[in-house]
Design goal:
- It is a single chain.
- By secondary structure, this protein is mainly α.
- It has one domain.
Length: 112
């Protein structure tokens, strides 16, 4: 039994599996949040103006496009206290998404 443990490097595997499971759990939480944000972005609540939290909308947008942005820029967020703002929520969110997702792509296209 001891030789099998040594051959399989059991102690290393035992520690590595715990790390891998933790990283997988973090990744699943991130995917779950992105899916929730995408559902929110795609939900059309109508064309009526509503009061909505600007910070929540921007945070959701950054969460969805972060994988694209992280290779092109540094994002620093320092929210100040802001009241909710009136607007057509899904249009505002889609605009933010378009600006932040398409900006790096357009920049890459110009460099080619």
């Amino acid at each position: 039994m001891h030789s099998l443990r040594k051959k399989l490097d059991y102690d290393y595997l035992k520690n590595d599996i715990a790390d891998l499971l933790g990283e997988s759990r973090d990744g699943l939480a991130r995917v779950r949040k992105i899916v929730q944000d995408l559902k929110s972005l795609s939900h059309v609540s109508g064309s009526a103006w509503e009061w909505a939290d600007i910070h929540h909308g921007l945070d959701s947008t950054l969460n969805m496009v972060w994988n694209e942005l992280k290779y092109h820029c540094t994002v620093s967020v320092a929210w100040r206290r802001m009241r909710s703002a009136a607007g057509i929520v899904h249009r505002r969110s889609r605009s933010w998404f378009g600006w932040s997702a398409n900006g790096p792509r357009a920049r890459r296209a110009r460099r080619r």
